[in-house]
Amino acid sequence: MTFSVWAPAHERVRVRVDGREHDMVAGEGGWWHADVPREAGADYAFVLDGDALPDPRSLWQPDGVHSASRVYDHSAFPWTDSAWTGRGLPGAVVYELHIGTFTPSGTFDGAIGRLDHLVDLGITHVEVMPVNSFDGTAGWGYDGVLWGAVHEPYGGPDGFKRFVDACHARGLAVLLDVVYNHLGPSGAYLDRFGPYFAGSNDWGPGLNLDGEGSDEVRRYVIDNALGWLRDFHVDGLRLDAVHALVDRSALHLLEQLATEVDALSAGLGRPLTLIAESDLNDARLVTAREGGGYGLHAQWADDLHHALHVALSGETFGYYPDFEGQLGRTLRDVFLHAGTWSSFRGRHHGRPVDRRLPGYRFLAYLQNHDQVGNRATGDRLSAKVPPRRLAVGAALVLCSPYTPMIFMGEEWGASTPWQFFASFPDPELAEAVRTGRRREFGRHGWDEQEVPDPMDPATVRRSALRWDEVTADGHRELLETYRALIALRRERPELADPRLDRFEVRERDGVVELHRGPLRVLANLGPDAEVRFDGPPDVLLASAGVEVAGQVVRLPGDSFAVLSPPVASPPR
């Protein structure tokens, strides 16, 4: 087989295959090649300046990110999803999960055993947090350094393929979280091979996307993305923190990626989705290329989360103060900061969303891994908000024109926290992460002793879901509400209608009212209230205690109702 590596600045490169070294031949564009008679399963590394390093494009790292790569044959996996035609994002309900804490085993095979729960809930897309190789056994996955190799403790490349295959067998699409804005602090050897790095950001070294030698670096990113979609049968990618991608090229990396993914989608005959996480509040990311945008398919909408979080929890610290009393406005406009003053940033931020854009291009959520895990103690919303109030928040998300996303365990009000954890073997790096996180929260007023030790295996265990809660009192009822709301969204197309220009939000007497075609969604986060209609409405779904007395709907505090009001007869 042929081994190839891009190492443009080196005068000699060798490949070590199963312990024997072979000279490589320089080719065009800084690429080196060597033909060595080996099959899948061979261990190999590239020898640069006397050091044996793993393949930057490795597909398999069975012994960790500092060790040799292993040859992997994509064609050997026995896929069973030949009838799978994919699922587009319109009308979707997304479920974000972390393989290492979704089940007690922390593996792909363990996660497969819980997929029927997601099907029964009504989920259409499973968004998996990063599974690329990182140093250590446990972590969030955002410190990856070998982007094409699947983390071995989860089950390696075959394990991930089994998971994707099992999802498709159940009608579930798979979205994979990928990180192209930085590399982790341990095992990032890319700069030993060529000019991969250019500067850094808050999380680590960033990529050279527009400088000398950047053509191959861009190719490295795009080939990695296409590989997940093509070779692992993944249905879409969630692109982490794209605002940290520094690219001054006329053709931005994101637009180039969107173009090539659309081409692959056409070739595969199934929809492929790109979802950005961005702090820019700029809908150009999800505007079609012919309309002057980048052509991504969707983006996370943190402003929606912030407004919902403040309304539900009452918290107004950090970046939350601007969102106090802004729930209705943010639900209507997607971005609260749309060319407006952001007190947290100390400047004006964002731009308005064109209401001709479909709402499904924005993901709405009450919680996600960041908004839970980046709290000092990783406490979920359920730790401070009662189930009835959580159900009201769920109704606002699941009856909105946006693509709803649920964070694992949210649907039953999981009692387990979801805390930040890592497992770097290097003791100095481990201590730096430990002390750095505590000091960061200490500067924001937290007691440093309350911040869990991210290197303690107990932190991982605390963060694992407790599946016995699903049927427990207080949890079971919330789960039934989520299931009923998702079913209603599927049964009544008005609730999934993504047209923002037909979406109205009104606030009266402390009640938020969503206009969804002929339907009305009432959400009362205040004291008992009454809403009057022109005639007796039909109740499609409501919290316990909601009453209809003629034309009046009585809403207890912390309740919701989805109603079909009477339609006036046209004049004769």
TrEMBL record:
Catalytic residues at: D240 (nucleophile), E277 (proton donor)
Q: Which Pfam families match?
A: Alpha-amylase (PF00128)
Under which pathway is this protein filed? Glycan biosynthesis; trehalose biosynthesis
Residue(s) at site: Transition state stabilizer: D370
Q: Which of UniProt's keywords are assigned here?
A: Carbohydrate metabolism, Cytoplasm, Glycosidase, Hydrolase
Q: Which family does it belong to?
A: Belongs to the glycosyl hydrolase 13 family.
An example GO CC term for this entry is:
cytoplasm
Q: Where in the cell is it found?
A: Cytoplasm
Task: Note the CDD domains from the entry.
Answer: AmyAc_GTHase, E_set_MTHase_like_N
Domain Glycosyl hydrolase family 13 catalytic intervals: 96-466
Q: Which domain of life is it from?
A: Bacteria
A GO BP entry: trehalose biosynthetic process
- Catalysed reactions, semicolon-separated: hydrolysis of (1->4)-alpha-D-glucosidic linkage in 4-alpha-D-[(1->4)-alpha-D-glucanosyl]n trehalose to yield trehalose and (1->4)-alpha-D-glucan
| Name of this protein | Malto-oligosyltrehalose trehalohydrolase
**What EC designation does it have?**
3.2.1.141
Give start-end ranges for the coiled-coil region(s).
Answer: none
Using the UniProt record, name the top-level EC class of this enzyme in a single word: hydrolase
Q: Where is the signal peptide?
A: none
Q: Keyword Cytoplasm on this protein?
A: yes
Transmembrane feature ranges: none
- Which InterPro entries does this one have? GH (IPR017853), GH13_cat_dom (IPR006047), Ig-like_fold (IPR013783), Ig_E-set (IPR014756), Trehalose_TreZ (IPR012768), Trehalose_TreZ_E-set_sf (IPR044901)
Give one GO term, molecular function aspect.
4-alpha-D-(1->4)-alpha-D-glucanotrehalose trehalohydrolase activity
User: Where, by residue number, does substrate bind?
Assistant: 238-243, 302-306, 369-374
